[in-house]
Design brief:
Blueprint lengths: L6 E3 L4 E2 H9 L5 H8 L9 H10 L4
Antiparallel strand pairs: 1-2
Length: 60
């Protein structure tokens, strides 16, 4: 398994790679990531992880 394959949102099965690609396509906040990927629409435990990914990815 590569780092991009790691599941960030267990409820919806959304991987880190999918989230990073969405961020790079312009989804620069949690609400936009939710809409684009379905992440953080279940239990909500991944919210902090989404925020961390957003902070790590440079703005394009």
């Amino acid at each position: 398994m590569t780092p991009g394959d790691a599941l960030v949102c267990l409820c919806r099965g959304v991987s880190e790679g999918v989230l990073v690609e969405a961020i790079r396509r312009g989804h620069r906040d949690v609400a936009s990531l939710r809409e684009a990927t379905g992440a953080n629409t279940g239990c909500g435990d991944c919210l902090e992880d989404l925020e961390d990914l957003l902070a790590q990815e440079p703005a394009q």
